[in-house]
Design brief:
Length: 232
């Protein structure tokens, strides 16, 4: 009986591990040359899904609607003074919504907010001439919708950037895009109305856990920082 119980026990463990490997990553897609990975399988951390921020829906329709996003650096302890991000606006067909077929990369400085607009090319009132400090993702199709994938602008976002003196971090911090705050809305121009977007994996969705992978190597509170939706 004990042998049969042990067999069932080990078979259960093996099946669980097998299903976990097959589960894959809900955030992965083929829009760029590098797909998202599961936790701890990505050597530099940039493409690990616990360093990504997602939004399930954006929309653009020429003369009828556009999408606005604000990315804010709250300048909290543990954050690097400037954090770079890369935004991929991916359409429902799996293509990048951009006339140049590229993602937009920018840096947010402590205490500042970067505005991002998803608009049709040559929008009459919302463009780089009327709002020179904004970031624009512009496409040529009349109507498009899809999801956003936001990744760190740097490799190794899980490592502190900057100096360390006598155990205190002076001006140093994590260049982790999930530590920024995101807010967005799809604007319906005809009625001057709209609806808010949802962001998954940013600072509002994160929490710090006391224990986790390799936690026995943690030497201080500055080494434990919440990040993304797949915390360890």
């Amino acid at each position: 009986m004990k042998i049969n119980h042990l067999k069932r026990y080990f078979i259960g463990i093996a099946m669980t591990a097998f299903l976990a490997l097959l589960a894959g990553n809900a955030f992965g897609d083929n829009i760029t040359t590098t797909n998202a990975t599961r936790d701890f399988s990505d050597g530099d951390g940039k493409w690990a899904n616990n360093y990504m921020v997602m939004s399930p829906y954006w929309q653009v329709e020429g003369g009828a609607s556009y999408t606005f996003i604000a990315v804010s650096h709250s300048s909290l302890s543990g954050m690097a003074s400037s954090i770079g991000v890369t935004i991929n606006a991916i359409t429902s067909t799996g293509a990048l919504y951009d006339a140049r077929n590229i993602a937009e990369t920018f840096t947010v400085v402590a205490g500042n907010t970067q505005r991002v607009f998803l608009v049709p090319t040559n929008h009459a009132t919302i463009n780089s001439t009327t709002i020179p400090t904004a970031v624009f993702i512009s496409g040529t199709t009349d109507f498009s919708h899809g999801h956003l994938r936001i990744t760190p602008g740097t490799t190794h976002p899980q490592l502190v950037f900057g100096g360390k003196i006598e155990g205190n971090y002076n001006g140093a911090g994590f260049r982790d895009s999930t530590m920024l705050t995101y807010w967005g809305s799809v604007i319906v121009e005809a009625n001057t109305t709209g609806f808010a977007m949802e962001f998954i994996g940013d600072m509002n969705d994160s929490q710090t856990l006391a224990k986790g992978y390799m936690s026995h190597l943690v030497t201080g509170p500055s080494s434990v920082m919440a990040s993304g939706v797949n915390l360890q």
